[in-house]
Amino acid sequence: MRAHTLEIVIFVVLFLGVSAMGFVAARWRRPDDLNHLDEWGLGGRSFGGWITWFLIGGDLYTAYTFVAVPALLFAAGAAGFFAVPYTIVVYPLVFLVLVRMWSVSHRHGFVTPADFVRARFQSPTLALLVAITGIVATMPYIALQLVGIESVLKTMGMTGSGTLARHLPIIIAFAILAAYTYSSGLRAPALIAFVKDSLIYIVILVAVFYLPYKLGGWGAIFDAADAKFDKSASPADGILLNANNQLQYITLALGSALALFLYPHSITGVLASRSRDVIKRNMSALPAYSLLLGLIALLGYAAIAAKVTPLKNPNGTNDNNTVVPLLFDKLFPDWFAGVAYAAIGIGALVPAAIMSIAAANLFTRNIYREYLKRDASPAQEAQASKIASLLVKVGALVFVVFVDPQFSIDLQLIGGVIILQTLPAVALGLFTRWFHRGALIGGWIAGMGLGMWMLYQIPNAATKRAHFGGSAFPLSEFGFDSTKTIYVGFVAVAVNLAVAALLTVIFRASSVTDGGDDTTRDDYFADADAPRISAASNSPVSPAVAPDLII
Amino acid sequence: MTGPEAPDTPATVQPGDRSPWNWLLFVPIVVPLLTLWYNADSPRILGFPRFYWLQLAFIIIGVSTTTLVYQLSKRR
């Protein structure tokens, strides 16, 4: 094994430079008072088009995506390319949804999606469910960012033996991240996102032209992948889809698109922007990242053509997440590989910071203020969020250090399925107040139960696990005479919706008490110039005030 | 579907986000999900099988549609 000294030096220098930026960010666009959740947790709700573009781009297209999607193509072929239609479909899908979310949050000072649900349906219970769903779905996602950094560290040989030595670099990296997120809040990832995305764009542009030059052209790369899949025993892989996985491809792309903006960290990025226009323009401009993602995905095939062999996990299975770092190690000069590694490593910091902020905001607004300290001042809220963000990161770290990384990946899979169950309350709630609040809770329980059961039924041959082995559910399990598979989340959310609709009709017919609605129609179209409701008390959903008095 | 709060004050101009142009948004939602259009190897462009170059090309449809809808629904 050759020395990785130059790679390590470049990685460390860039990593430390960016960390310094994270601390400086506290002074960037400095507000009068950082001790307010709007400032710490949403960057003052003031970001314009460019910052929002980098922030949301850096937030959604995570280091894990950049490592795991090519790994998926490397192992399974075309099925992994679902990430491209997924990230095309998502923007037109949420175009109208997110501006409504922004407007109503601007008017009422909402910080989290659960805040909105609390006011829209006047149901603290439903809001609590949305908040807990969000936190549980986000935690493994943060852990996966660490898995992304680790794939790079592993390739550079920066991992010793023994539990602590193996994870020491990542513990240090995360401690730095936790420190500047604590002090700078959302401003830190917003500032770092510029560096992260610039680095990734440069690395990928170079790779897209340099790799085919080294490997005999893109045609040869695809042919090499085709030859590998032809030889493999599995009938499911290949550079094209087969008859059985097309339904899975479509439903996974659509289901993932529906889930993406339900994640608390996506909403955080959206609420941090300045106006409706900024969001609409970003919905047009963000697909630039999808092009990047598509090209990165194809690095998985380049790795096949370059005959990369993935490193092993401690338990002897292949760690496919190492194929992209290994590809750079093998074909590029050391200094450039170092830059690429830094891009992935820094790429993990931006989403990890935003996710921990989003999860912390959920805790503060919908658990701390709702159940622990009803009269919390803005400064106390900000303080609670800062501390919660630290705890969330420690939790994610514990996951990575003590739990099999495969388990984080499984949890992330479950995360997508469970966050989808907030769709009726959060996304449809922006368009209609028709659903009964009790029915939404019933739908959530049904969708969650079915989703868990389906995931439990799915084995994975490659990792030799009997349960939670993937998200492709065979239709034959439902009694259909078919070999096709379908995305679990898609089925679960469909059942969730059906149950919520049915229960709404039943509850209305039997006159079960429903909550009111703290929002008005105009709130959903308000722009930046519209004043905030009850700005004086700074608690739009203050439980002490009767709902009809707020407006 | 704007929910139960139907316009009850027709005298004043209601704010809203309804525009017939919004229907255009269905194009970039539906087209990338029709696998039968692109699940094939030929023709290849620059070595990319159709499955790959066509899906990457759909990004252009997505960008242009959202831009168009934004511009058209802005001036009313």
Describe the structure.
The complex is a heterodimer of chains A (551) and B (76). Helix content of chain A is 68%, strand content 1%. Chain A is mainly α and 551 residues long. Chain A has a single domain, classed as Sodium/glucose cotransporter. In chain A, strands 1-2 form a two-stranded antiparallel ribbon. Chain A is globular, with a radius of gyration of 23 Å. The relative contact order of chain A is 0.17. Mean pLDDT of chain A is 86; it is low at 535-551. By secondary structure, chain B is an all-alpha fold. Chain B has a domain at 28-74. Helices cover 45% and strands 0% of the residues of chain B. Chain B has helices spanning 26-30, 35-38, 50-74. The longest helix of chain B is centred in the C-terminal third of the chain and has 25 residues, at 50-74. Chain B starts with 25 loop residues before the first helix and ends with a helix. The model of chain B is unreliable at 1-11 (pLDDT under 50). The A-B interface holds A 78, 81, 84-85, 88-89, 91-93, 95-96, 99-100, 212, 217-222, 239-241, 246, 249-250, 253-254, 280-281, 283-285, 287-288, 290-291, 294, 298, 431-434, 520-522, 524-526 and B 1-5, 14-17, 22, 25-29, 32-33, 35-36, 39-41, 44, 46-49, 51-52, 55-56, 58-59, 61-63, 65-67, 69-70.
Spans of at least 5 consecutive residues with low confidence of chain B: 1-11
Strand content of chain B: under 5%
Shape verdict of chain A: globular
Radius of gyration of chain B: 19 Å
Count of runs of 4 or more consecutive helical residues of chain B = 3
CATH class of chain A: Mainly Alpha
Distance separating the two termini of chain A: 69 Å
Structural class of chain A: mainly alpha
CATH topology of chain A: Sodium/glucose cotransporter
Mean pLDDT of chain B: 81
Give the proportion of residues in helices of chain B.
40-55%
Fraction of residues in helix of chain A: 55-70%
Residue fraction in strands of chain A: under 5%
The string of secondary-structure elements of chain A, in order, is HHHHHHHHHHHHHHHHHHHHHEEHH
- Unreliable spans of chain A are 535-551
User: How many strand segments of chain A?
Assistant: 2
Helix-strand string of chain B: HHH
Give the assembly state of these chains.
Answer: heterodimer
Q: How many individual domains of chain A?
A: 1
- Rounded to the nearest angstrom, the radius of gyration of chain A is 23 Å
